[in-house]
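Extended Data, panel c. Modelled sequence:
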Amino acid sequence: MFYDADHPNISLAEWENFRKKLPRHLIAEIIDRHEVGLPHWFVPFARGVAIASDALLHRAGYRPGMSRPHGWRKIYCDVFDLDIADGLQLTVRQCDGQGLWTGERFSESRPYACSDELLVHQFGSTPIFIRSYQSAMRLATHCHENGPPAGLRWISASPKDYQVAVEIARKHSIDEAVACRNAQQEDFLRGRPDPDPRSIYRQVGN
């Protein structure tokens, strides 16, 4: 049985309830996993990503129009690093060219591959994404120097046994797709067709 406290496997019902009651001081909106195109190994049980709110970025010292903070260097076109200690770096990187950036912490002494730390919301270890690299840099620095605000934390981007987690997540997605499809068919046979037949795909990410 797979268990990792940093990578909880939440249900679809729990996810939908979270979406309805977002902590607006931290999160502006939620984007489903399939819309962002996250790699399978990257927080494999996360059902989506959370976009950092303006209030959270303001708390981190970001103001619209600010430039790149001092010390950050461009590694690739979509990756920036900041050395913060011997063998320890902060990293912000763009996700699949979509203008969404992660805040990460990288250590040369990481215990296993893909164990770089990622800033997430505690519910479902939902990754915090930011809409500009300038604001992502300030949020990552703030959360490293002061600790994340209540509700956020640093976790490894991938569990040690990520292959097992990925397979579990894949099976759950299939089971949810089958359950939703069966429910739609039952409603249709009872004369209650789904007003939006695409809803099944929104729910399970197909």
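Residues 84 and 144 are 9 Å apart (CA to CA). This feature is highlighted in the accompanying rendering.
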